[in-house]
């Protein structure tokens, strides 16, 4: 119940125990096509260039920047937590001239802030934001920022590592040009692959660059030959991880995206109602709180680390700590994918309540459980 990896679905673990076949085996090629087709459904897109990069979410982040950015390009990045900060670093390493649009950690990037930045940087090549900021629990709405980006002639890049599979991600409707995600959050697979999507416009940018992409491994011009129709050897795909993603996506689509999102929303509300009876507050901006990552404020006088340690050592429950300016101030409770269940909410509440009581902060666990119901 931390910020990811989340619990892996049993059938995903079983799929991973299947014998290996080759990365150019006809059945593996079929499986690649099925993964791409299911990813398009999950991402609500018709984009041709959709596939999982071999590597974790950060590899997907690099994939997007190295393919789209050339030295000297202007980029605007929304920074409201760890991952916006990381995007700036990656963009700068590609030679981009980066304009940061900063919000306090826990708040979203407001369209107005992007509009202001566009006054100073009117012709950026790319505007990048983190949809679900795992470090703070805030969900930044995409549509208005997308419109501002496209009106300015820029592409929109979206980090959906924590959002995909837990709340709507509408690539075509929101006109997202480049996107990366991860397998270990709401898709309930182990870490290891990064689903990515490039729009036809982003593909045109990547294929008509002045200079070669500086990363051979992440160059979409080369990867397209392996993941596209030609099936030319590029690298040995992580076969087992693709089995896992295939099964993780199959489970998500079998449940149905709307039902899955509703499950995440309901379990978030159950946890929230219960925590409120305990006098615990959510820390992210109201109206923009993630269902899958519940960031809550550590009450005055309670030792943040002592609670987390007791959770892990006495109850075998992992929850996350705050990072950067939120270190020691918040806990992050994941209800991602397989982990998002009322059973887990109740198990967490019992453990958390007992620990708070043992530390002298009296809370009514029964009342909290009733509120969760
Ligand atoms: C929003 C977000 N972006 C990017 C990443 C980086 O992904 P990974 O750790 O899989 O490389 C994470 C990881 O937690 C994340 O939560």
Please provide a written account of the structure.
The protein is α/β, with parallel strands linked by helices and 373 residues long. It folds into two domains: 10-254, Type I PLP-dependent aspartate aminotransferase-like (Major domain) (Aspartate Aminotransferase, domain 2, 3-Layer(aba) Sandwich), CATH 3.40.640.10; 257-372, Alpha-Beta Complex (Aspartate Aminotransferase, domain 1), CATH 3.90.1150.10. Helix content is 43%, strand content 14%. It has 13 helices and twelve strands. It is globular and about 65 Å long. It binds pyridoxal-5'-phosphate. The site of pyridoxal-5'-phosphate has 13 residues, from helix 3.
Low-confidence stretches: none
The bound ligands are: pyridoxal-5'-phosphate
Shape-level CATH architecture of the largest domain:
3-Layer(aba) Sandwich
Any idea what the radius of gyration is?
21 Å
Name of the CATH superfamily of the largest domain: Type I PLP-dependent aspartate aminotransferase-like (Major domain)
C-alpha termini separation: 19 Å
> What oligomeric state best describes the polypeptide chains here?
single chain
Share in β-strands: 5-15%
Biggest sheet descriptor = 7 strands, mixed
CATH topology of the largest domain: Aspartate Aminotransferase, domain 2
Average pLDDT across residues?
98
Number of domains: 2
Helix run count: 13
Secondary-structure class: alpha/beta
> What overall form do the CA principal axes indicate?
globular
H/E topology pattern: HHEHEHEHEEEHEEEHHHHEHEEHH
Q: Give the total of beta strands.
A: 12
Read across the widest sheet, the strand sequence of neighbours is 1-9-8-7-4-2-3
Helix content: 40-55%
The CATH class designation of the largest domain is Alpha Beta
């Amino acid at each position: 119940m931390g910020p990811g990896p989340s619990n892996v679905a049993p059938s995903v673990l079983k799929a991973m125990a299947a014998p290996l076949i080759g990365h150019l085996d006809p059945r593996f090629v079929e499986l690649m096509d099925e993964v791409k087709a299911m990813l398009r459904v999950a991402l609500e897109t018709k984009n041709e260039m959709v596939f999982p990069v071999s590597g974790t979410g950060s590899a997907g982040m690099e994939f997007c920047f190295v393919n789209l950015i050339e030295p000297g390009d202007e980029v605007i990045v929304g920074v409201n937590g760890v991952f916006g900060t990381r995007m700036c670093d990656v963009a700068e390493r590609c030679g981009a001239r980066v304009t940061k649009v900063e919000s306090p950690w826990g708040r979203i990037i407001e369209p107005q802030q992007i509009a202001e930045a566009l006054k100073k940087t009117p012709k950026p090549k790319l505007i990048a934001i983190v949809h679900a900021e795992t470090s703070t629990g805030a969900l930044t709405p995409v549509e208005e920022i997308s419109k501002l980006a496209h009106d300015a002639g820029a592409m929109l890049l979206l980090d959906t590592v924590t959002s995909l599979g837990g709340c709507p991600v509408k690539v075509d409707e929101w006109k997202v040009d480049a996107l990366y995600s991860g397998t270990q959050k709401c898709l309930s697979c182990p870490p290891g692959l990064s689903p990515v999507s490039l729009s036809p416009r982003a593909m045109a940018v990547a294929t008509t660059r002045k200079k070669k992409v500086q990363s051979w491994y992440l160059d979409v011009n080369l990867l397209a030959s392996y993941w596209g129709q030609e099936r030319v050897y590029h690298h040995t795909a992580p076969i087992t991880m693709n089995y896992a993603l295939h099964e993780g996506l199959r489970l998500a689509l079998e449940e149905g995206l709307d039902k899955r999102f509703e499950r995440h929303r309901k379990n978030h509300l159950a946890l929230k109602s219960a925590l409120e009876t305990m006098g615990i507050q959510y820390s992210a901006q109201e109206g923009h709180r993630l269902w899958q990552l519940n960031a809550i404020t550590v009450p005055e006088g309670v030792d943040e680390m002592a609670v987390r340690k007791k959770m892990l050592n006495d109850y075998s429950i992992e929850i996350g700590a705050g990072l950067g300016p939120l270190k020691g101030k918040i806990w992050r409770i994941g209800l991602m994918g397989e982990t998002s269940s009322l059973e887990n909410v109740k198990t967490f509440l019992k453990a958390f309540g007992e620990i708070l009581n043992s530390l002298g902060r009296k809370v009514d666990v029964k009342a909290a459980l009733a509120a969760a119901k």
